[in-house]
Design brief:
about 270 residues; alpha+beta
């Protein structure tokens, strides 16, 4: 059985992409499992990629990689599996974001603890139902992928061990991250990348740090995280946003451990 070993967010090898990656490295500096790597054989110089390895359970995969590559445009690749380029049916609506990743890192310095998940939103206008189902089938065949329990087309890949891939996840622990979310999005005209970060800040504190229009909330999810779209070198062809999760009080939730997705959503495939 093939196993999904890596999900890679690949950026063109340009000075602008290097700056973006360096800013992202600063943003994730306090995440213990985010490892910056230079090119093979290079003892110093710029970082080529960030590798996020699930801390629990031991040996869980896939890894999440964000890095430079010999590609003409941003792309997400699955090893093994398909790739997701940048697609769109028209220009992104609304004003361009004003906060870049450097400013995001400056305001959040010392407050980013973990990466809950990464994800790709695919617009319904350019991703047919048939193509969507084929993509979900392909990923579910090599990973532990679960339906979103409330019925939206938001399936999640949870990192897992080889034994869990064969039999299913039955151990619910904090650290089975980053997860990966795939969204069939009726509200987007172009591809969007998302990075959901656990912070130690409250809802009020994040609203003060990122007031509208820099920050916003989604209906029904406004008590979980605050959204900050960022300015970056590939705007407006690609949207990139950071979902900043509020501090959790009272111990880990069934979202943090993955139990809700596994037991209420159910595995795909």
């Amino acid at each position: 059985m093939d196993r999904l070993g890596e999900i890679a967010f690949r950026l063109p090898r340009t000075p602008a992409a290097q700056t973006f990656l360096d800013q992202l490295r600063t943003l994730l500096a306090d995440v213990p499992y985010a490892e910056p790597l230079r090119p093979p054989g290079a003892a110093e110089g710029p970082v080529e990629r960030l590798v996020l390895t699930p801390p629990r359970p031991d040996g869980a995969r896939p890894l999440t990689v964000i890095g430079l590559a010999d590609v003409p445009a941003p792309v997400v690749t699955f090893d093994p599996g398909p790739s997701l380029g940048v697609e769109g049916a028209g220009p992104l609506a609304g004003p361009a974001p004003t906060v870049d990743v450097a400013e995001l890192a400056r305001r959040l310095a010392g407050h980013v603890r973990r990466v809950d998940h990464t994800g790709v939103n695919l617009p319904v206008a350019t991703t047919s139902s048939e193509a969507w189902r084929g993509l979900v089938r392909a990923l579910a065949a090599t990973s532990t992928m679960y339906r979103y329990p409330t019925g939206e087309e938001w399936p999640f890949v949870l990192p897992s061990t080889p034994a869990e891939l064969r039999a299913d996840i039955r151990s619910f622990v904090v650290g089975r991250e980053p997860r990966f979310e795939l969204v069939h999005d009726a509200w987007r005209d172009r591809t969007e990348w998302q990075f959901a970060l656990w912070t130690d800040l409250t809802r009020a504190e994040l609203a003060e740090l990122f007031p509208e229009p820099e920050g916003l909330t989604f209906p029904g999810l406004d008590d979980i995280f605050r959204v900050v779209p960022v300015h970056h070198p590939w705007w407006p062809e690609l949207g990139i946003r950071f979902d900043l999760c509020y501090r959790v009080v009272g111990g880990p939730s069934d979202w943090e451990t993955g139990e809700w997705l596994v037991t209420a959503g159910g595995r795909i495939g």
